[in-house]
Specification:
This protein has about 650 residues and is of the alpha+beta class. About 20% of the residues lie in helices and about 30% in strands. A 9-stranded antiparallel β-sheet has the order 7-8-9-10-21-17-16-14-15. A 7-stranded parallel β-sheet has the order 22-23-26-30-31-32-33. Strands 1-2-3-4 form a 4-stranded antiparallel β-sheet, with no helix packed on it. Strand 28 (about 390) and strand 29 form a beta hairpin. Helix 6 packs parallel to helix 9 (about 440-455). It is globular, with a radius of gyration of 26 Å. Bound molecules: 2-acetamido-2-deoxy-beta-D-glucopyranose (6 copies). One 2-acetamido-2-deoxy-beta-D-glucopyranose (NAG) binds near residues 103 and 129.
Length: about 650
């Protein structure tokens, strides 16, 4: 049957209550999806249209087929229902083709759950017989767009938060007004979840629901225009039966939306939090030597790294600082082409007696850094090694789980417990097969995770784009992720209240990175003028983050009294029940400058003990010139005006 002929009969418009299966109202929430049988759709919140679809399109055989110019043909529309782990669902499927001479068939599906009534919509693209010649004009685009929405807000009533860049999308995130002037919508390889909200905190979160490494968001247009979700732009062909899904999640409350959205994702991917709970580096204090640390590519005067590490250990023992592990950064291993990793072992100039000797002396387990694989890595068969590697341009990519298992097993000889995979974004962009193939990205991270699981190693992601962080939903041994740019004395990278919302939602402990506990530490590698005016703030943010707490002071320079507020005498971090996170008001104020509310960093968390919630509020860098009142119900912790105990760290 050709549905195009009778589309008018099935036109539903924006009916709030459905007579047909194609409009779904959510009795529990205020979200309505309206679907028209000609392929159009829109999302309404509390009766107001927030999002209207942009034309659906797919690249096939080097051409773009779009509903805009009717080259993408709607062959049929069908309605189906079923049940899965989330509940009973119903779906509307638009069956598209490129016409008689193109054999490609792609289904665009809109799915909702009605029992229980769940406040989200899943949009799916299904390439039934695959497609060739899909590559987009630019890698920042997508090879097919569904869903796609127009960026317009008639009354300028919506704001947005767009994650982008690395450190799970913190470094380039933007908060702005959603209208035809919207410019900073982060997209392409570095793009991430998009959050829309109004001043009443009604919120939609839009993100990939599957194929995290392979999907992108694309802002089509410089100002305003459309925003699309689909497969990333460099993909040249899509295999048969490939499916990509996007979720649009609604809640009244921005933090509530993050919580609910993350819960659905974690449930769908059965993410087990046991690895986070049992991660020693998340539970106990550790000593760090990464960028920002006093001993980052810097040793004590006249001695090597081995002696420096042993001296740090002696000093901290003497002061009674209960470090439970040491982190070793990129200064310890062999580098190859383009400063990539050649051999992940300690160089003799660094540790003349070997890494096992050093661990044996410190008697502490190790967290160790690694970066992108160099093309001349000694592990690759092509270079005389034992393992299958893909070598492209200047980089390498391990192809087997056994490689990771051997790497981690070998490293347990020097006490490895946490593998820090840094430069994830650079490895990703540097290997063309990770960009033009729909399976390689996921395979890379899944193999690393499987190797870590088999050897009881935990993983920290660093310089992760949002896609890497989302992929960790399927890799529970990835327990933590860096959520702001590198520390440096005086660096403004403690502002993790927003990125922690994202990390926590998907089950990752947010890591602020290292810090100094005292202001001046002479002889540091960053320059004579560098100092840390906010040591206590850094310590408080780290402690309340629920991620690692990892100072990096010069020998003799630790403020032990201040630092030890983080932990008990065994080094156990006294962390709250969930990370410190920005309150809704902070985001609303950032998007709507005229909103009367707090202008600055206001984050809350709580400790739940025997059913009692003890609230904690951190406010910093407040720009308001008149006092602002934050009521308990504004904190995102208490629904009503109850009496609370507010604890201060300082
Ligand atoms: C579907 O119908 C609506 C309402 O008439 C119209 O605005 C929209 O452009 C149509 N969409 C397509 C893809 O033809
Ligand atoms: C894509 O190309 C492959 C290899 O040439 C071919 O076997 C397959 O049928 C093509 N698929 C489609 C959907 O055109
Ligand atoms: C953007 O919207 C404003 C008001 O809603 C309108 O006056 C203006 O013409 C629009 N600009 C574009 C480029 O569509
Ligand atoms: C570790 O220390 C023990 C006891 O001192 C010693 O027997 C062993 O050889 C050391 N191992 C290494 C690798 O240094
Ligand atoms: C592990 O150690 C063995 C023995 O030294 C070595 O042959 C192998 O290359 C190492 N593999 C990795 C991945 O480190
Ligand atoms: C909470 O207290 C504020 C200020 O006193 C008041 O305006 C508000 O109505 C109260 N809310 C509730 C739910 O009691």
């Amino acid at each position: 049957m050709n549905w195009r002929g009778i589309k008018i009969l099935f036109l539903l418009g924006c009916l709030k209550v459905s007579l047909m299966d194609t409009t779904h109202a959510f009795p529990e929430s205020d979200l309505v999806i309206s679907i028209i049988t000609n392929g159009s759709y829109s999302l309404l919140i509390k009766g107001e249209t927030w999002l209207m679809n942009s034309p659906t399109f797919f690249n096939i055989d080097g051409r773009t087929f779009s509903t805009r110019d009717k080259t993408l043909i709607l062959e049929e529309m069908t309605v189906t229902s079923g049940e899965d782990m989330l509940g009973k669902w119903q779906s509307t499927t638009f069956h598209y083709s490129g016409g008689r001479h193109v054999k490609v068939r792609i289904d665009a599906v809109i799915k909702t759950y009605y029992e229980p009534d769940l406040p989200f919509v899943i949009f799916s693209q299904k390439y039934l017989n695959g497609a060739n010649g899909t590559k987009a004009l630019d890698r920042a685009q997508v090879v097919g767009g569904f869903p796609g929405f127009n960026i317009e807000s008639k009354k300028g009533t919506l704001g947005y938060l767009s994650f982008g860049g690395f450190m799970i999308g913190d470094t380039n995130k933007h908060i702005g007004s959603w209208n035809n002037n919207s410019f900073y919508i982060r997209d392409g390889l570095e793009g991430g979840p998009l959050v829309l909200f109004n001043q009443n905190a009604d919120t939609l979160i839009i993100s990939p629901f599957s194929q995290f490494m392979t999907s992108s968001v694309w802002h089509d247009g410089l100002y305003g225009g459309s925003v699309y979700w689909g497969i990333m732009g460099d993909v040249e062909s899509v295999p048969p039966n490939f499916q990509y899904d996007t979720i649009v999640y609604y809640a009244n409350g921005i933090s509530k939306a993050f919580e609910g959205w993350g819960e659905v994702l974690r449930k769908w991917y059965n993410r087990d939090d046991a690895y986070v709970k049992s991660d020693l580096t998340i539970n106990y204090l550790g000593y760090w030597t990464d960028n920002g640390a006093f001993y980052y590519y810097n040793t004590e005067k006249g001695v090597n790294y081995e002696q420096t590490i042993l001296d740090v250990k002696a000093y901290t023992d003497q002061m009674g600082i209960p470090y439970r592990y040491f982190q070793y950064d990129s200064w310890f291993y062999y580098k190859g082409l383009a400063q990539g990793i050649k051999t992940w072992e300690a160089r003799p100039d660094v540790f003349p007696d070997g890494f096992p000797f050093v661990s044996n002396k410190t008697l502490l387990p190790a967290a160790a850094h690694n970066r992108y694989w160099a093309r001349d890595t000694t592990y690759a068969k092509q270079n005389g090694g034992m393992y299958n590697f893909l070598l492209e341009e200047l980089k390498g990519l391990p192809l087997d789980e056994v490689f990771w298992r051997d790497l981690f097993t070998n490293a347990t000889k020097w006490g490895l417990i946490l593998y820090e995979q840094d430069w994830l974004n650079v490895e990703f962009r540097g290997v063309p097969s990770l960009l033009n193939n729909v399976h390689m990205g996921r395979q890379w991270l899944m193999l690393m995770g499987a190797g870590a699981k088999a050897t009881n190693i935990r993983i920290q992601y660093c310089m992760a784009n949002p896609r890497h962080a989302l992929q960790a939903l399927e890799i529970p041994v990835v327990t933590q992720a860096r959520v702001s740019d590198d520390y440096g004395p005086g660096a403004d990278q403690w502002r993790i209240g927003i990125s922690s919302m994202f990390a926590h939602a998907i089950g990752l402990a947010p890591y602020k990175d290292t810090f100094w506990t005292t202001e001046y530490q002479s002889g540091n590698p960053y320059g004579i003028n560098r100092h840390e005016p906010y040591a206590a703030l850094n310590a408080a943010v780290s402690t309340l983050s629920t991620g690692p707490v990892g100072p990096s002071d010069k020998i003799g320079a630790t403020d032990v009294t201040m630092l030890m507020r983080c932990c008990n005498k065994d080094g156990l971090i006294l962390k709250p029940s969930r990370p410190l996170m920005a309150i809704d008001q902070q985001l609303i104020k950032a998007a709507f400058p005229s909103f009367s509310g707090v202008d600055g960093e206001v984050w809350t968390t709580f400790s739940e003990i025997s059913g009692l919630k003890f609230g904690i509020l951190l406010a910093a860098d407040i720009k308001n010139t008149v006092p602002v009142v934050i009521l308990p119900r504004d904190t995102g912790i208490f629904r009503v005006n109850v009496s609370v105990v507010t604890c201060s760290f300082f």
